[in-house]
Amino acid sequence: MVAPIVQPGQTVYADPINDLVQPHVQASAGSFNVPSGASTYTPVAFTSTLSSNTASMWSVSQPTRLVAPTAGVYLVHGGMIWAAALGAADARGEIRANGSGSPASGTRVGTQRGSSGNMQAVATGTVTLAAGGYIELYLNTQSGSTIAATTTLGMTRISAT
């Protein structure tokens, strides 16, 4: 990428600078309640964006999805903090693409049993998405009761397809 040349006294507007940065977004769900169930994976509904340079990548009308505005390879990353004790149960998170029933390559993580709370886990990977393709973060716990998790999910285009 060529660095822009700015002359002394020249006004630089945000749009040309933003055009130099690949589309990216990071969304937050704050505290999200995950129901218990051995095979129950629940998509996280996000409530806001923490950062973004492309407004169309997250919408309150489809709060579980982060959407690719252009085709390309995207770095995806999700983070979760399991706030309550897991006891003898597991807790898992995975990033899925385009409504798939299984995680994108390398994006499934587990949290150790016996956590007394505030156990953190992250999931990262890359996915190739067409324009309009999307990712979602799914969580699962077998704790026997609903557990709150603090979550984030983000994606950044790292190259064209």
Reading side by side through the largest sheet, how are the strands ordered? 3-1-10-5-8
Shape from CA axes? elongated
Based on DSSP secondary structure assignment, what is the total number of beta strands?
10
Structural class: mainly beta
State the major sheet. 5 strands, antiparallel
Radius of gyration: 18 Å
Record keyword descriptors for this entry.
five-stranded antiparallel sheet, 10 strands, single chain, 3% helix, elongated, 1 helix, 161 residues, mainly beta, 46% strand
Outline the structure in words.
This protein is mainly beta and 161 residues long. The chain has one helix at residues 14-18; strands spanning 24-34, 42-43, 48-52, 66-67, 72-82, 91-97, 108-111, 119-129, 134-141, 147-159. The strands form two sheets. The protein has a five-stranded antiparallel β-sheet, with no helix packed on it. Strands 2, 4, 6, 7 and 9 form a five-stranded antiparallel β-sheet that branches. The longest helix is centred in the first third of the chain and has 5 residues, at 14-18. The radius of gyration is 18 Å and the shape is elongated. The two termini are 17 Å apart. The model has no long low-confidence stretch (mean pLDDT 85).
